């Protein structure tokens, strides 16, 4: 069979295995092994499978994933999310829609130590949703705010998807982290403005919270100073070139563990649970990378990426038109696949096209991360929406999806800005030269 047809058949089989709920990493490894064996030789395929899995799981650079995931697990177990929300509430609670604003600010703060969208939604949501409901917030605004604000967690470093993208494309993780900061902060601002706009349209949608004194606000800031110090020490030190990504992740994980002990929140039971959950998540990501590596080798011998790159370059469209098609593909794919799985599946095929079009790989990383995260709040998959539904089972899923619509508008506005002005993304990485 022609290699291209074999590759297309392999992609169809892979999607079929996804619908059968086969783990994504195993599905990619299986299809990659079978396809490579058919096109090259079964001995070569067996050697490829063993070598790639061993290489990825024993890779020193991949330790950064384990350590940053552990950092987020320890931060959650140490009660940092509760302190962040409580402080944000005391600072902004009295203003119109103050609790929703506090939720967005807390998501931004927790994103700086977590790096996972679903974890941010689950963690902040458990704290924020009961408070918003107690103050009579409209359930669509409350749930939509939580589901959408979790997206910030994947833009502001550390971000597991940025790490995986950097490993797959051999780009600097420090540059990707730096590129995510400005859009993450701008998205936070856009979400706050969105909440104000929704609250202005109807004063009963988002009542104000309790008034706090200036002393209480300052005390609230002091309570979370150590969290921002941890972020500055870990990520800031990486940007300044004091240490490598692995060292930054190790300092972050150790710092989160130490803060949990200092505040007497991290009990032995919580420590064991957090470590198990962190390692389980990290192993899942590393197996995804190993499976994607095998599948990528199969795609290479089918020549699909090379032929696709040539075909795209010959299209009678300007580069921005082709990039718009790529963005549409990622958005539609993200509506059905987990963001991590989508990036693992498509990067081996799409990345050569991006290079052919002379787009900056760091800029493209931010673009696809933003698009894939827009998809996590849109039907039918909408991972963040289902996580929110798990916190408030009495709220209809359709109401949560409707609640995310104003925030989706803000995300699409940011996407347009990123697409039209690449310098908006690349300015900080160029300044830091990481």
Could you describe the 3D structure shown?
The protein is mostly helical and 434 residues long. It contains 23 helices and no strands.
SSE inventory with pairings:
Blueprint: H1 3-19, H2 24-39, H3 42-57, H4 63-77, H5 80-92, H6 98-111, H7 117-134, H8 139-149, H9 152-155, H10 160-169, H11 173-201, H12 214-223, H13 225-239, H14 245-262, H15 268-302, H16 304-313, H17 319-334, H18 339-356, H19 361-375, H20 383-391, H21 397-403, H22 405-420, H23 423-432
Helix pairs in contact: 1-2, 1-15, 2-3, 2-15, 3-15, 4-14, 4-15, 5-6, 5-12, 6-7, 6-8, 6-11, 7-8, 7-20, 8-20, 8-21, 10-18, 10-19, 11-19, 11-22, 11-23, 13-14, 15-18, 16-18, 17-18, 17-19, 18-19, 19-22
Structural class: mainly alpha
Strand content: under 5%
N-to-C span? 46 Å
Q: What global shape is seen?
A: globular
Q: What would you report as the Rg, rounded to the nearest angstrom?
A: 22 Å
- Return residue spans where pLDDT drops below 50 for at least 5 consecutive residues: none
Number of helices: 23
Task: Summarize the biggest pleated sheet.
Answer: none
């Amino acid at each position: 069979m022609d290699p291209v047809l074999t590759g297309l058949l392999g992609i169809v089989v892979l999607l079929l295995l996804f619908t059968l709920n086969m783990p994504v990493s195993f599905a990619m490894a299986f299809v990659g092994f079978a396809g490579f064996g058919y096109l090259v030789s079964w001995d070569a395929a067996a050697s490829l499978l063993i070598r790639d899995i061993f290489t990825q799981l024993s890779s020193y650079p991949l330790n950064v994933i384990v350590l940053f995931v552990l950092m987020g697990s320890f931060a959650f177990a140490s009660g940092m999310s509760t302190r962040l929300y409580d402080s944000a509430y005391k600072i902004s609670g009295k203003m119109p829609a103050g609790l929703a604003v506090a939720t967005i600010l807390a998501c931004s703060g927790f994103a700086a130590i977590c790096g996972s969208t679903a974890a941010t939604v689950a963690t902040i949501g458990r704290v924020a949703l009961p408070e918003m409901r107690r103050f009579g917030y409209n359930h669509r605004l409350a749930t939509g705010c939580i589901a959408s604000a979790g997206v910030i967690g994947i833009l502001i470093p550390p971000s597991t998807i940025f790490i995986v993208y950097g490993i797959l494309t051999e780009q600097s993780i420090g540059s990707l982290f730096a590129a995510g900061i400005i859009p993450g902060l701008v998205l936070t601002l856009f979400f706050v403005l969105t909440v104000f706009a929704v609250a202005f349209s109807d004063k009963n949608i988002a009542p104000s919270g309790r008034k706090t004194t200036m002393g209480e606000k300052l005390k609230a800031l002091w309570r979370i100073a150590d969290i921002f110090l941890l972020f500055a020490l870990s990520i800031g030190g990486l940007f300044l070139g004091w240490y490598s990504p692995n060292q930054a992740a190790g300092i972050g994980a150790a710092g989160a563990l130490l803060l949990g002990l200092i505040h007497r929140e991290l009990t032995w039971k919580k420590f064991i649970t957090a470590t198990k959950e962190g390692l389980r998540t990290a192993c899942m990501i590393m197996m995804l990378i190993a499976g994607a590596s095998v599948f990528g080798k199969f795609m290479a011998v089918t020549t699909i990426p090379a032929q696709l790159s040539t075909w795209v370059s010959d299209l009678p469209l300007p580069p921005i038109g082709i990039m718009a098609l790529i963005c549409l593909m990622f958005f539609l794919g993200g509506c059905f696949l987990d963001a991590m799985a989508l990036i693992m599946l498509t990067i081996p095929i799409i990345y050569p096209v991006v290079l052919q079009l002379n787009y900056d790989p760091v800029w493209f990383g931010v673009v696809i991360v933003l698009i894939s995260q827009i998809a996590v709040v849109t039907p039918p998959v909408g991972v963040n929406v289902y996580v929110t539904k798990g916190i408030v089972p009495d709220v209809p899923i359709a109401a949560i999806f409707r609640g995310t619509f104003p925030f989706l508008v803000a995300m699409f506005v940011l996407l347009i800005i990123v697409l039209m002005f690449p310098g908006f993304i690349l300015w900080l990485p160029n300044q830091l030269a990481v």
